[in-house]
Amino acid sequence: MSTEPTPPPVATDPTLRRVLLCFGLILAVLVLVVAVSLNNLSRTVATSDWVNHTHALITELDTLQPTLTAAEGELSRYLLTADQRDHTDYQNKFAELGEHTDVAIALCAGTPAEQQQFQQIALLLAKRAEVASQIVQLKKAGEAAALQRLLGQDAESHDHRELAQLIEKFRATQTDLLSARDRTLYLQAQTTRWTVLTGLALDFLLLCGAAWLIRDALAARTLANRLLQQSNAVLEEKVTQRTAELSATNAQLAAQSLEDRWSKQALEHQNRYNLLIIDSISDAVFVVTKLMNISRLNPAAVHLAGFEPVELIDKPLARLLSTDGAKDPAKPTFDPLARTLSEGHELRDRAGFLATKGGQSLPVRLSIYPLRDRDKVVGGVVILKLSAPATP
Amino acid sequence: MSNTTRPPFVPSHMAPIPGSSRKHILAIDDELPILELLQEYLKAQGYRVSTAANAHEAKRVVEAEAPDLIISDLQLEDTDGLQLIEQLRIMLPKTPVILLTGVLFDPHVVEDNLKWKISSYISKTAPLQSLVDEIRRHIGR
To answer: Could you tell me if A261 lies within 8 Å of chain B, comparing CB atoms?
Structure first.
């Protein structure tokens, strides 16, 4: 099961956080400004629609009285001329008045107060239309007296004055509302203007803050980078210095290693050479300790005695060699030779006998040379030569 | 004298680079480990080293490019070191020769009997640095 190393947590840069916060605030302000502006725009559009509606209503109100006057004028002409064309004009004018009334009623339909207020005007207009209709019918019927009486009654009525008052009142109400809506529109425009300007100012300040933060962070990073480069230069110099030291040490070690190998090689060579000298001698050579125990023998000694080196190493030389030809080789009878080393003098060309592995006792001439190390006898070398066979 | 396997020829990587400004040394010895050690050490000291295991190879190297210094063992496979040195000195009379051998000579013997044949005598038991010191004394770095 392998466990992958988890990456170290990424440290959040506080400057980055602040800059992001600034841009977040800028975005929030922009969104707020846009929302407020859109809202104000919607309200302005609604207000503008209402203003147009009010203007249309006032326009319709302004046309009612002149149209009524014109229609009643056409009626008077018809009464005088009894001409069918005047009758038609009278009807058209009243129809026109009806259209204006219908339009005004439609414009008031959305507002119950206006609807109620205009209802009185509409009733008066309907009453005037009804009176005109009765007058025309009496005229057509030729009832002059009734016509005269009706006209007299109508002249005494205050419909026109009441109508003028109602229209004027209604118009004044609409004009007041129009002024209020104008003020509202102005305030909305001002609100939008200030909202946009305030938002822009806030965004500008936030942008300045973000720019300052970025500039500050960049300056800090430039400084840190410079310090890092300086540290790197110092570190690189130290590494170079250390590398040089290591290289020098390595070279020294390599040289020392070669010296060691050379010494070992030289020692092996010297040892081999020394052994070669001993092994090359055709006489039997025994190297013995100070106590006359065999420590080394050359091939000629092996050949002469018939023993393998392993059978003789660390064994007393007296078991092989004697000066009196004793039959018991185990008997220590070679004291004169041992005394030679203990006393530190040489013994040259002395007669003796060598006991071989095959049980023979060979007559030999022997010499003993002490091995001296700084004037101290540490062992000896025994050289044997076969004696010449005795002359009969 | 030695059971060491002798190199049949001078390996190409041991051959000197002709025209190089480094001093050229010819090392003659019948033991390959000795030659390898000498070559490695002297190369590290800034010398170009050619090696020869016998007289025939030594002469071939000398003919190819005369060395600035010769290091020779005393006992070689096909001849005596001193005899080879005499032959090489005929070819290169001014080239210094260092006798590097495991055979121990009495310094007086060297001074009296060998000074006409060799420039220096160094025992193989001496440190390699003493050999380099001797080389520098003769031919510099």
So the answer is: yes
**φ, ψ for residue A344 (rounded to 5)?**
80, 25
Write down the ipTM of this complex.
0.78
Structure-block tokens of residue A261? 């190998």
Inform me whether the pLDDT recorded for A329 exceeds 70.
Answer: no
A319 to A285, A298, A316, A332, A333: CA distances (angstroms)? 16, 18, 6, 7, 9
pLDDT per residue as tens digits for the range B104-121: 667 777 777 788 888 998
The whole-model pTM stands at 0.52
A262–B127 CB contact, under 8 Å: yes
The residue written with tokens 């390898």 in the block is B36
For domain B20-139, say whether CATH 3.40.50.2300 is its number.
yes
Check residue A367 and give left, alpha or beta (phi > 0: left; psi -120 to 50: alpha): beta
- Cβ of residue B43 closer than 8 Å to a chain A Cβ: no
Tokens 């929302």, residue located: A35
B109 and A CB contact within 8 Å: no
Task: Please give the class, per CATH, of domain A277-386.
Answer: alpha beta
Cα dihedral A66, A69, A74, A80 in deg (nearest 10):
-150
